[in-house]
Amino acid sequence: MKVYFDNAATTPLDKRVWEVMSEQLKMLYGNPSSIHHLGRTSRSEIEKARKSVAESIGAGTGEIFFTSGGTESNNTALCCAVRDLAVTRIITSPIEHHCVLHTAEKLAIRNKIELELVKVNPLGEIDLGHLEELLKNSEEKTLVSIMHANNEIGTMADIKTIGDLCKEYNALFHTDSIQTIGHFPIDVNEVNVHFLSGSAHKFHGPKGVGFLYINADHLIKPFISGGGQERNVRGGTENLHGIIGQAKALQLAIEEMEERKQKITEVRNYLKQQLLKKVPGVCFHGIQEGEFLYTVLSVSFPPGPKTELLLLALDIEGICASGGSACSSGSDKGSHVIQCVGDKEGRKTIRFSFSHYNTKDEVDYTVEKLAAMFENVPHTV
Ligand SMILES: Cc1ncc(COP(=O)(O)O)c(C=O)c1O
Predict the structure, then answer these.
(1) Where do the structural domains in the chain lie, given as residue ranges?
(2) Which of the two ends of the chain, N or C, has the fewest CB atoms closer than 10 A to its terminal CB?
(3) Shortest CA distance to 154 belongs to which of 284, 256, 283?
(4) Is 283 a catalytic residue?
(5) 278 CA distance to ligand 1 middle (Å)
């Protein structure tokens, strides 16, 4: 059996998205910047896609900029806030994706901005009291960059409250919503947010395309120089078919959100329940009650003869999942997120992440293989 439990890394393309894209790949080849009718047709498809993406998060069409994906969107938000919006201080968390953390670190070194890390607790929750203290204690123009949901452990941040704190202390707010766009309703009118990032391949769209919402009052200067594409902000011929595919995938994800959520939650809960029953000593990272990223289950496995090479052992059985351990051996670098939230020596974290294509049969198969790998391992947590 082949099992794909790595949907937080990327999702398979929806067949209906592929159909729209392949049709357009055959028909639509004019350069969107050309003024002849073929160019104008391509331009009109891009603008339709922009309107559709904008509407899905309550933004204006002029506030959506197409990018090459989440990494570019996050880099742009941070770098342009420093370059164009007089930001001299960034507050972020130690469990952000590396495309935020490393960008912030580079900006701190190169641009000599101040970098502050807000505390998180062992469940991955942001310490809002600490955030307020950091915001209160400085006169520097600040950008707060906090992810909506953590891609490794699934804990979500209260972006409404963070946005309100930013407003109170006159800070800009960026949220990396790569894991939540298409999975949770998001309305930029309900959150005081200036930048918000999305990536199509996390919601069954194509890879290599994403978007950045930039609040209309905080427009940035060109960050890729060239032609005047993307309202003169990002030069280069647009990824026309990717952009069309992204809009279709997001439209479907929003239309089917509740149905998909129910299906995924059922499969996730079933995996959790079966693991607790059949693999002694497992425990879970991140928030498990209330609101959390229902597409992710981060499992910590006990030490045992197969633990170190667990991911490989699963792969041999046809099961795709992701690693993310605190790492004590030299075999991988380990995850900064698991290191931050903490895991006991010798344990191994595997992230199982789901889409609506997954089934309980796949869970049964996976748990059967895992139970065999942990047979006779002492029951320690
Ligand atoms: C939370 C988060 N941010 C950013 C990214 C990067 O997105 P992309 O792969 O589209 O560059 C990812 C991808 O794994 C992610 O999970």
Answers:
(1) 3-10+256-373, 15-255
(2) C
(3) 284
(4) no
(5) 33
